[in-house]
UniProtKB/TrEMBL annotation:
Residues 72-262 form the ABC transmembrane type-1 domain. Belongs to the binding-protein-dependent transport system permease family. GO terms for biological process: transmembrane transport. InterPro entries: MetI-like, MetI-like_sf. Keywords: Cell membrane, Membrane, Transmembrane, Transmembrane helix, Transport. Pfam families: BPD_transp_1. This is Sugar ABC transporter permease. The keyword Translocase does not apply. It comes from Paenibacillus darwinianus. GO terms for cellular component: plasma membrane. The keyword NAD does not apply. The chain crosses the membrane at residues 12-32, 76-97, 109-131, 143-162, 242-262.
Amino acid sequence: MLTKRLKSSTILLHIILFIGAVFMTVPFLWMVSSALKDLGQVFLVPPKWIPDPFIWGNFKASLTALPFGRAYYNSIYINIIVVVAQLITCSMAAYAFAKIRFPFRDAIFILFLATMMVPGQVTIIPLYLIMKNLGWIDTHLPLIVPAALLNAFGVFLLRQFFMGIPREMEEASIIDGANRWTIYTRVMLPLVKPALSALGIFTFLGMWNSFFYPLIFLNTPDLFTVPMMLNLYRGMYATDWTLMMAGASVALIPVLIVYIVGQRYIIEGVTLSGIKG
């Protein structure tokens, strides 16, 4: 009887997950379908899922109508810098909070985590004034520096992983003559590779899709990232939906590659860290 109940609950769970997957996949399929249509087919009622004919030229037109190559370069190099910087700064802070005893350590960590509760829109005005006084407006520095230096979620994720490492390993390294830096780089970091991989993927996905901060800080089209460049297809009186959908489909390729390649690392990094207080 218990086995039958478990099977029934498993089947029901899979049905619910399948329905949820369908709802999340439909917008993606509609985007790809619209990218292969002419403008008249996009607004047909009832909707026509299979384009007739297939307009493959939309992809070429989308990439040549605007400087998408430059936007891709901007997004890629900003993402690489931020991901590498966050892995360094977050891992160092997480190691300190997890393994080094200093006055008010737990209170400082709780205060640091409290920053996760403050929406970015609340702090955007003081942040803008700081960037303006530094002369960084209309540069990529406002997108790189704050993101590279402050990620409370990343510190929290890695701290949980560091806390799961037995203290005996650290004590054995100290007996062998290792200092803090050696323990951090040669003992601890190799043990937290799954969590580092998960954090790197989360950071890449978040930065690649970021639209709010580039919209605030960037004015020159040559500095635009991919989401900002896509927004240029939206005109004041009309929007070229076919080119926008084609550009969005191309912009999604790096995200899909990163997710498909790193899916195992995301699951492994989150589950092994425990996400517990």
